[in-house]
Amino acid sequence: GNNYGIRIAYRYTADASGTFTITNQAAIAGTTFHLYGFCNYETTPQEPFINRQPSDAWTTLGESVNLSVVGGGAAPLFYQWFKDGAPLPDQTNAAYSIASATFDDSGVYTVVLSNALGVVTSANATVEIGLPISNPSFEVDTFTVWPGYTADNGPITGWSTPTRAGINPVGGQSPFANIGTIPHGSQVVFIQDDGTLSQTINGLIPGVAYYVKYYENARAGYATPSCAVTIGSETIVAAHTVTPGEYRAVTSEMFVATDTSMLLAFVKGTPYGGDATLLLDQVSVLRAPMLPPAVVTNPQSQYLAEGERLVLTVTATGTPYRYYQWQFNDADLPGESSPTLIRNSVTPADAGQYRLIISNLYGVATSAVAVVQVGKSITELFSTGVDNNRNLLEGGSVDPHYKLAYSPDLDYPGPDTVVFYDYWPIPPYLTNGPLSKWIGPRINDTNYAPGAFPGTAGSNYVYRTEFLMDTTDPATARIFGQWASDNNGLDISLNGVSLGISNVNGFASLTPFEISSGFVPGLNVLEFTINNFTPGPTALRVELRGVAMPLVDTPPQIIRQPSAQLVVEHGSVEFRVEAIGTGPLTYQWYVDGFEWFDATNWSFRIPDVSRYYAGDYTVVVSSPLGSVESQVATLTVAIPAAILQQPQGQLVEAGSSVTLEVQAEGDAPLNYQWFLDGSPVDGANGPVLSITNAQLVNAGGYQVVVSNPYRSVTSAVATVTVVDTTPPVLDCGPQRFIEYGTAWDFTDPLFSDNSGAGGVTLALIDVVTNAGCGPNLMITRTWRATDVAGNSSQCTQIISIQDTTPPALVCPPDATVLIDADVPQPNFSGGSVADIGDPSPVVVHLEDVSVGESPKTITRTYRATDVCGNSITCAQTITVLNEPVPVPPDLTVTDAVEDGSAVNITLGGSSLAPVSWQIISGPRHGSLVMVSSNVYTYLPEPNFNGVDTFTYRLVIGSSTSVIATVTIPVAYVDDVKPYAFTNAVTFPAGTSPRALAVIDLKKDLRIDLAVADYPARAINLLTNNGFGTFTNAAQIPVGGNPVSVQAVDVNKDGVQDLVVAIEDEINSAVEVYTNVQKTGQFALAQRIDLGANAPAYV
Prior knowledge:
The protein is mostly beta strands. It is built from one helix and 89 strands. The strands form 23 sheets. Strands 22, 25, 26, 28, 29, 30, 35, 38 and 40 form a nine-stranded mixed β-sheet that branches.
């Protein structure tokens, strides 16, 4: 990907072309190589320098060797190669090649670079030439069948291989050799099956030392294999894991040839088969130099506890055969003649000084002295996740030795810590075992998918463990440990003092630490503080080994006495004593002077304390040097509140009494609180709860909480059931008699019940009203009372209604009419009747009595009767005038009415009563608004100039008068300024133009006029005399007031006719007048009636 490549700097001397060429040769098919960021600049003259030194090389007899150097500096640059300090003739290039190597080519090579400014010499490059090997770099064969197995391509020249082995690249691809740069040539061998890649090496000289060199690698992205190398029956490269990356050079241990031919084998180890692939290249067998022995690593001094395993190891170089002899306190140890000395279970006698003497034919070497101290194991010092026998605990178990001293997670506060399952986050955590396991505040629940375990809160956690220094000297104590945590380990403290030890290496590996000070006699407290960065998984892993020298000639003595304890019965209690002395120390606990069987440790725990365990406790600490007894520690057992007899449920009749009782024990004070259905009962604070007059509200589940300072306990539920089988007592009262129309109401009946008034429901279930009247009109209500138990009773209320009041009757209003025909019918129209007891009293016409003729008076009588027979009458007077209908006058408004001004008009007629004025047709050019019965306000339409009219008549009863006309002259007020206009033509007198049309009356090509004369109800014809003046030639009467006139050729004869829009008080129309014989004489041809919709124009 971008920015994950290499940066190259290269100096060159530009040639005459001025071009620079970069060539990319991809080594693997399908790969790409990206170049970018090219920069070129001229350098200043500089002395020679080397960018890449020549590398060591080894090969077999007859193979090629290629050495090269990459350098720079001011041109020209000169090169000279040297072997073992002597210049090589004609080797003056940056590269030096040996086409077919011989043993004489072995040696140390250098190259000298020089220019005019200076000289520089490269580092040494050692060339080693080994025995002849067939196909040592696996370049002889060319495999073409992908992915390169021998089964598909044939055997590898010179080598025996397992089935799943072959050569890469194949066909330009490297499916197995997929990482690193091939160190020699272009091919490597790969091995997948468990088995060996082997070849017999010839030309060995028995007794001479040799060694093997080769390159190794592994396929990336899959399981990593292991590799071992053998020659004959001897292992010269121990089995080791080969991790993928760049190819690594491996040099074997030296071996001594036992024959002239021996089998060299590369053993591919676990995991066997599959895609775990071992890659090998450039194998050589080289003759060892004749060297005396030399110590490479010395044995390490050790501080061990009695019974632990001692292992001392030395590594050395030098020509075989090498001889080994271990010495203890300067004396030889018989039979100990290998590089490693082992004592499986050390004793104090093994303490001392150890060293190894190494010799061969060329010399002797002695290792440094390793001092071994043997002390005692520190008592009760444990790793995480183990039991008292240091066996691994099962996942989910509570660790008995580590407690949470602090946790920020309120859901997982401790103090218990739990052992993790072999489940996520293991891995990525270091795998559990074999000496310890991960522990934490919360089990890594296997119900969560990998990666989904939520863990605990983020912040610091403190883990605590305790150990005892009772028979060992704290001044000589050491703890050797290693730890890992998620996330960082912040600190380790001993007895409250920070040791300044932290660990930022996380959870993938254990980090060692050592504690050499801070120990105290007796109980010691070791704490580990770790930080969880964010909410999620967190855990601790610790492995500890402690050792100290034993106390000598120290009789037992108690340094911390057991303390008195107060414990609640059935709780747990622990007594502790801290003593020191020469071991072994034994312990025996006593209670009230009696030995407690099996209580023989420095701590004495009773998991379930009985009240009978109360007493005085002591412990005797003994050793071969004496014994000592502790002070008395008194155990007080507190008796917690407990229920001996539960309250019992009861079934009672409502109104009776209930008694609930609980029997309890416990140290005083004992407190009681009774509850009903979870709610406290006020004042119920004793062992007995009494209820008098129990009601249904008292039914339910009763519990009592009994408490003292040591415990609170809740009783079982005692159910109290209250039953009610007696119905309520219901009283509706006696029958009542009420006068109709007086104020009255129903009152609710009275009731009582043994469940209390609040527990009774009163309901009106029926109302019956009969159809009678007076004493026989009764309203009956039926009531039901139901208590909470469902018991019910009924009663009835009866109210009788008496009605002696007649209806309220109002006759129609008196009337005056003109003639008999106008006398109204006796249908009570306009009258009213009402009754308090009858919504529809019956009204009948009794008679009409007439008196006189002109006028005539009619007295009309009505009677109203209700359903109870109560009745009443009333009379209506009707006057008949018997006079003719008056004639209304025509009216003309004499006052000048200006356009836009209103005028009041009083209509004439009769003073007879009743008389009304009726407008028949409204004005055409204005509006009327009624002020009173015969007074109207007239408002002309804007810009109207002329005479407007409307008609009216009188109405008396059913008689109407003739129609009269009101004429309203309306004068137009010209309030438009002339703006330089002059009156060029004046129409002849007698014309009142409303509208006009232009027409050629005589076909003389002169413009004549047809003028609508509104007041005259005519069309005036004005002829043009040819000099711009007009003469009133003729007048055509029309059938109404003309509002518009239009000249048009109606008959399509080339002569113009006239179409006139007219209106009058009742109707409007359009009239067509044709030009008779084309002489300018007009006659009515057609009338089109339009009704009341007057046309504005035509």
